[in-house]
Amino acid sequence: MPRAAHKTPRKPLSAYLLDQQLFVLIFGLAAFSMIIPALHSGATRSLETSRAFFYTGLFGVVIFAMIVIAQTGRTPRHGVLGNLMSIFATFVFLPAFLALPLYESLQTTSFLNAYVEMVSAITTTGATVFDDPSRLNNTLHLWRAQVAWMGGVLMWVAASAILAPLNLGGFEVTAQAEPGQRESRFGELDRTNPREKLMRIVVALVPIYISLTLLLWVLLLISGDPSLVALTHAMSIMSTSGISAIGGLEASGSGLTGEILMLLFMLFALSRLTFSSDTVTATQGGIQTDPEFRLGIMIVLGVPLVLFLRHWIGAFDVAAEDDLGLAIRALWGSIFTVMSFLTTTGFASADWAQAQAWSGLGTPGLILMGLSLVGGGVATTAGGVKLLRVFALYLNGKRELERLVHPSSVSRAGKESRRLQSNGAFIAWIFFMLFAMTMAALTLLFALFGVAFEDALVLSIAGLSTTGPLLSLATETPISLAELGPYAKSVFCAAMVLGRLETLAIIALLTPDLWRS
């Protein structure tokens, strides 16, 4: 007689949720963090807003305490893969809780709009449903920036503790991901308990993140920004979210000095080596030999130079050629804006309009979208394809051109390419194709739900690259999220989560090991 098929028992959903201890911890921290906007709104006499944050935070703390009691004595069974699921749950389910005080404070918007706003913040996308900044009070602006700031520090920690051990998030193209290369100076960390490793990374990185944010806040204050504006901009720069309490930098009191300070702090989004050497993306030569940092600087200097020289090549506004001040402002506006969109922050310089007029570009949307697609460094808060993958494809293209000229030549692997595994370009190309296919699918979905094709493409790129300000700068007419239908907003939320976690990580979550009892 045939043997009866063996059926793997499935655990109940409640038991599975109790295994996600990292998500429960993040939920608890988010609940406790609501005390900050509650105190701020109380100090500014916005009592309705203060009560909304206080009661929601208290409710969250109670739920957190109950879950912690239920988790007592339980040991997570999925290790790093379970932590990846917790990060996914943080981006999908936690915004529903974070949206409660926003929804209760406004009372003039739908809960879906509040949810979209919080997904945009925690994924560091920075797109907003509220086109008019005056519609939100100061506390709600602070809350948006704070949620994005927390999402940024989450990605800093998750890169080392979760994505690196799973060879995801850009680590898949490094030599560490190659068979036989697992043992390195990080081998001791790899053998430690995932919880101990997570705590060690938190202790190492969170103080750096907080210190850099406070330093930028103080510098912007000294430069002339009001306290709230300086704080939201400092949080937005560190998290690359591009959230502003005043709708941008045009009305900023810090002016050119503030933009220079912001640009310097955006350097932390070009390479992990600018603030840490805790991952396998590190090189022995330091930041000077880091290919991500060098490629990023090359783009930041090269693209503005081309736009600047186009003034004479295209013979635009020839009468202004003798105005040195106008030329310097145009060049600076290009440099700052290119850096901002390359790091997927999305702030436009106050001189960006002057840069457009100087170069003769009416709507440089393709340039901004291209920069956002390239993105910043691996294991930073920046989104996009990432500079390391672009560098891997560049090395492979360079090698193929060499073989056309010298078919029998032997590749010269320098220090810059030693951090990449032998088939790193192939893996980078696979990711790029998955990224392109996802972008095409999202564009079709947006078009299906009534969005014009050009707007659908911009929405897809803005979500996948986590560069929300593209919605207002990449097209002649700004795209309003509030005017989208509920299905289109839901697709945009999915695009932001996909862009933040990346497609390979979502595929990793489909492994049977995670769902098997």
UniProtKB/TrEMBL annotation:
Give the record's GO CC terms.
plasma membrane
- What's a single GO MF annotation on this record? monoatomic cation transmembrane transporter activity
Q: Which domain of life is it from?
A: Bacteria
Compartment(s): Cell membrane
**Per its UniProt record, what InterPro entries does this chain match?**
Cat_transpt
Transmembrane segments annotated in the record for this chain: 21-40, 52-70, 82-103, 147-166, 201-222, 228-249, 256-275, 295-314, 326-347, 367-395, 425-450
Membrane topology of this protein: Multi-pass membrane protein
Question: In its UniProt record, which GO terms are filed under biological process?
Answer: metal ion transport
- Member of which family? Belongs to the TrkH potassium transport family.
This protein is called Trk system potassium uptake protein TrkH
